[in-house]
Amino acid sequence: MSDAQGVIRHTVSVCPVCLRRIPAVQRRHDGAVWLEKQCPQHGFFSTPIWRDKLDLELWRAGVKPLMEGENPHCPHGCGICPDHKQGTCCALLEVTPRCNLACQFCFADDEMPEPDLGQLRAAIDHIASAGRPTLQLSGGEPSLRDDLPELVAYAKQQGCSYVQLNSNGLRLAEDEEYVAALAEAGLDFVFMQFDGTDDGVYQQLRGRPLLTEKLRAVEHCDAHHIGVTFVPTVVRGVNTAQLGDILRLAVSLSPAVRGVHFQPVSFLGRYPAAPAALDRYTLDELLTDLVAQSGGRIELANFRSSCCDHPLCGFHGGFIVLEDGSLLPLTQPQQTCCCGSDQPPQPEQSCCGGSERAPQSALQEGCCCGSGKTAWQSDNCCSGQLEATQQQSCCAGGEVQVLPCACDEISRTTAAQNREYIGRRWQRNLQAEQESNGQDISSLSGFLTRARSHAFTISAMAFQDAWNLDIERLRQCSLHVYADGMLKPFCSHYLTAAEAAHD
Amino acid sequence: MIEASELQCERCGVALELKKTYFSYLGHAFHTDLPRCPVCGQVYIDEELVKGRMSRVERELEDK
Description:
Chain A is α/β, with parallel strands linked by helices.
C-alpha cells in the first residue's frame, strides 16, 4: 500500500555527506522503489533499493517497519546495543591492513596499524565468548600474515564454531604449503573473491588478470579439503552478464566449491565515484538475472529472502549437486507431505495419503509420519510449530508461497541456527564424499550422504552504504565486525561519508 | 534393531513385514525399508530412525 505520494514505508537513514541520522521513506515511482531522504544541510537524496522484478511485500515476509522511537542510537551508538534484534552469526576480524591487490572497490580500512599476535588472540577470546560465532579472518588480505595458521588453531581451540578465511586467493594459489598449514590448523572454509570467468572482469575490478590463479587456489584448497565458496562482487556492466557462467563453473567444481555468495557492489570505503541510480544492482535484479542466465538449472522458487538478517539484506537457496552435474533444489514450491506410504507420493496427496491417523497401539500413537510422540517428543509432526502455523507442515499438506521466508517475525532465525545452516554446507565432508558415488538419492541414506558431500548454496548479501542505509535493516544485522574492543554491525562499522571516502 | 517379524499390528493382529516404504517431506520423497502391517498398511518407525536419519533429513530440508 502506498499513499498519494507513493510512500510505502517510513524508516530512518543517514545523510550520505555528514552521516547525521535523518528520517527516510521508501517511495515507489518510475518502476522502482527508492529510499529518499532530506538532510537539512546537504539536501535531497534518492537511491533505488528495489526494481520491482519481484513482489517486495512478499519478499519482506511480514517484517515489521521501524517504529518511531525504536533504535534511537543507530547507527552511531553501535556496539551491539540492547535494541539490536539479532545475535552474532559471523564475527569479522581484520588481521592486517596490507593487501597484494589494489581493487576499484574495497570496504576495508587500509589505514589501521598491523595488529600483533597477542592483540589478535585477545580479540579472538572476546569473539569466542560471544556465543561461539563463525570467525571470519579478513583484511586487507589476511593470507599475507605468515602466522595465520596459528590464529586459526587458536580460534578453534577457543571454541569458534567455524573459522573462515576471506581471501583473494593469490597466496593460496602460489603457496600450497601455506594452504596445508591452514588445513592442519583447522580452517573450515574460504570465502574467495571470484568475480568472473574471464580475465577482462579481473582486469577491470582488480587491476590485473587473475583467473588462472583463482583456479589454482581452488585446486590447492581441494587437495587439502578446505571448502571454497566463490564470492563475486557484482558490478553492473562489468560482470552482470556472467552470473550464470560463474554458477556453472562453481557447480562443475563441486564438491571443492561449496557455493556462490553474490555481493552486489556497495559504496563503502574505496570506490571510483559516488553511485548514480543505475549503479545500483538490487537484490531482485540479481536473483531474476541469475535465474535467467542459469539455463533452467535453478528457479525463483528455490530461493528465500534472508531469515537471519533482514530480507532486504540477502537471499539463499540450498541445493545438492547430483552425479550428472544437475542441481537438486532443497527448497520446493510445493510442500506437501505423505509419510509412511508404500507408494511414491502423488502431488495431490495430503498428509497420510488421506488415511486416518495411526491409533494408539503397539505401533505408537502416530502423527502423520507414522512416528510417535515418544520419538518426536517436543516436535510436532515433521516440523516445528512455526511451519505448522504457516500451513507448511506435513500435516497441513498446504501449498506455500515460494519466495519469502516462512517466518513473519523479526529475529526469526537465530544467529546460531543460521551459522549451523551455512557452516555444514560450506564445510567439506570427506567421509560422505567417499560414500556418495553410486548412491540412490531417493533413499533416506543416499540423500543424506549426498546432501553432506555435495551441498551447494547460492546466496547473496547486499551491504548498505551511506546512500541506502536503512536502520530497519541494520538493527537485524548478524554479521558483526570486531573493532575497538567491541562487536559492531558490518554496515555501521564500515559506513563512510560520501565526500571523504572515495579515491 | 527389532526384526519386523517380531512386531505385531495391534489392530490386525498379524506380524509386520519389512517393506519398501516411501516418505515425503517438504516436497521431497525418500524410501527406506520398514516393518509394515500387510493388512492395514501401518508402518512401525523405531526411535533410532526418527531421531537419526529422519531428523537429519528434516535439518537438510527445513530452511534456516
